[in-house]
Amino acid sequence: MTGILAARPLPARSKAFDLLLAGGLTMFFGFLSLAQEHWTGVLGLGMLVPLVWRRSRPELVFFGVAAVAVLQWLGGANLMAGNVGLLVALYTISVYGEIRYSRIALGIGGLGVLMATSRYWSTSDWRQQVTMMVALGALVFGVWAFGERRRTRGLYVAQLEERAAQLERDRDREAALAVSNERTRIAREIHDVVAHGLSIMIVQADGGLYAADASPEQAKKALATIGDTGRASLTEMRKMLGLLKQDTQPDLDPNQPRPQPGVSSLPELIDNVRDAGLTVAYEVRGEPRNLPALLGLTAYRIVQEGLTNTLKHAGPGARTSVTLDYGHEMLTVVVTDDGRGAAVAPSTDPGHGLVGMRQRASISGGTVNAGPKAGGGYEVVARLPYNLPGGQQ
């Protein structure tokens, strides 16, 4: 196995450099070795030619070159110019090889220093021996230490690159999640607006159809309500579709849709439902307070969805009540009716109906409970804390 840096595929430029380096060292130091040691100088070539594969096979090259150096010593040859290949191989394994093999290579280099200097014990003064040993030892250790420093720096750069790549992947995932959440939110808004508006329009159209012959005035009133509801729904739709435009200029359009509705818009919503023929009682308990925009919109949409479900499922003659209870820590929203809606299976389409109400409440840190009442009818209870998660306002 090779080290982390060697594990990367070598570019063609690096391979060409290694080929030129090995060729140049072989041409210069190899022929010097042949001129110095004659036939044993061939071993110098054996320590230089393998450098062509020094980065792709750093351990194999080093141990191969070291084996040739041992043959040189056993053959009685002196130090030659080709021994520079051993230093290049030591540097390469300290940079690109595994750390354990790099340590072993340093030990082999130190042993090589002792073996090289022992060749001259009988022909030189002890001071010269010590000087030669220290010089060769410093050279070997310096080459190895320089390679280790290069390895450490390379690993640090590799870690930075990996961290940057991970941050980029995290950013892409967060962007994709944000897009998905925004699509879900827009789909929920469109459902609330369209379902509520169409429910009122259908009820009014049916009522106007039955009253067309017996009571033309009632039919006209139903048609007027249909028109008003359609225009209000279109206004809401323009507002939501405007969020998708990147070049929106709200100050330039006098017909720009109004801000998102909140609890202050509930009386108007309830009046529209009453015009559709549904009896609705509205009550506010506790001391009203200014709510964050998200919380107010959530309460409004929950009431809107509850009234829409009542229009669709409660049946004729059903009575409905809407209650806002401003408690100490949370706003409680209750929408209840005495119709037959409990017998109708709720929608299971994700992001719509009751599921959509629960999603809205969850975003605001609250909960929604919906189900049949004891004695008949249906009830939706939402509990929305004033302090939104994450400190949202």
Helix and strand arrangement:
Blueprint: H1 4-7, H2 12-37, H3 42-46, H4 58-74, H5 84-96, H6 99-118, H7 126-214, H8 216-242, H9 266-275, E1 279-286, H10 293-313, E2 319-326, E3 330-337, H11 353-363, E4 367-372, E5 378-385
Parallel strand pairs: 1-2
Antiparallel strand pairs: 2-3, 3-5, 4-5
Helix pairs in contact: 4-5, 4-6, 5-6, 5-7, 6-7, 7-8, 7-10, 9-10, 10-11
Range of strand content? 5-15%
Rg (C-alpha, Å): 42 Å
Mean pLDDT across every amino acid position: 77
- The percent range for helix content is 55-70%
Q: What is the strand arrangement across the widest sheet?
A: 1-2-3-5-4
Order of helices and strands: HHHHHHHHHEHEEHEE
Query: How many DSSP H or I helices?
Result: 11
Shape: rod-shaped
Query: Based on DSSP secondary structure assignment, what is the total number of beta strands?
Result: 5
Reported for the largest beta sheet, the result is: 5 strands, mixed
Helix and strand content put the structural class at: alpha+beta
Poorly predicted segments: 246-258, 344-351
What's the structural domain tally?
2
What distance lies between the first and last C-alpha atoms, to the nearest angstrom? Answer: 56 Å
Describe this protein's structure.
The protein is of the alpha+beta class and 393 residues long. It folds into two domains: 4-168, no CATH class; 279-393, Heat Shock Protein 90. The protein has helices at 4-7, 12-37, 42-46, 58-74, 84-96, 99-118, 126-214, 216-242, 266-275, 293-313, 353-363, and strands at 279-286, 319-326, 330-337, 367-372, 378-385. It has a five-stranded mixed beta sheet with strand order 1-2-3-5-4.
